Structure formats: structure tokens, C-alpha cells
Amino acid sequence: QVQLVESGGGSVQVGGSLRLSCTASRYINRFKRMAWYRRAPGKERDLVADIDKDESANYVDSVKGRFTISRDNAKNTVNLQMDSLKPEDTAVYYCNTGPNIYLYWGLGTQVTVSS
Questions:
Q1: How far is CA 108 from CA 53, 73, 87, 91, in A?
Q2: How many CB atoms neighbour CB 107 within 10 A?
Q3: How many other C-beta atoms can be found within 10 angstroms of the C-beta atom of residue 40?
Q4: 3-class SS of residue 44
Q5: What is the pLDDT of residues 2-28, one digit of tens each?
């Protein structure tokens, strides 16, 4: 069973940056698309961005131009560079396959953006 461990979250002010990392216990190259999701307080978990093996990526409109997803199959990692952070980006961030979920969820990493 592949285990996912997210890291890199923290507390930043508006306009700040964070780089999230997701490390899988083994071979994410088995999965065509990997993705980052987030769950804001009181809301459901939503897709934020996903990336194909050929590194083509998709983003939800609210993060386009601010977030960049990347993957390193050799290192079994998926990263999310987050710039120009806004208070509405506050959430717990998770990685998994996308758009269908094939792996158990990790614990996520908390991102808090304050004004």
C-alpha cells in the first residue's frame, strides 16, 4: 500500500509563499495523474491542481497564476509551490491521485494565511 506524507505547511501573511511536498512510500509513476487537494474550515475537500506524467497541469481558477504543481517520479514526490497567498487559501492540503482517488489519504499539512 502506498503511503502519502504531506509537509511544508505553516503560517504566513498575505502575499507570502510556501512550498508543499508530498512524499509517497513508493512509485507514483504508476499513476497517470497526481493532484493536490485542500479542505478549508467547514468545507469539503476540493481539487486544487493536478499533473500528468508528461507534466501537463491543470489548476482551479482561484489559484491559476499563483500555484505551480510539479512531480518527480524518481523521488516519488509531488510538490506545490504557492505564491501570493490569500486568506482564502487557508486549509489543510493533501495529495493523492487525480481526479479519481486510488490511495489512502495522508494526514495533510495545514496552511494558514493571515492578513
A1: 23, 20, 18, 10
A2: 11
A3: 14
A4: coil
A5: 899 999 999 999 999 999 999 999 888
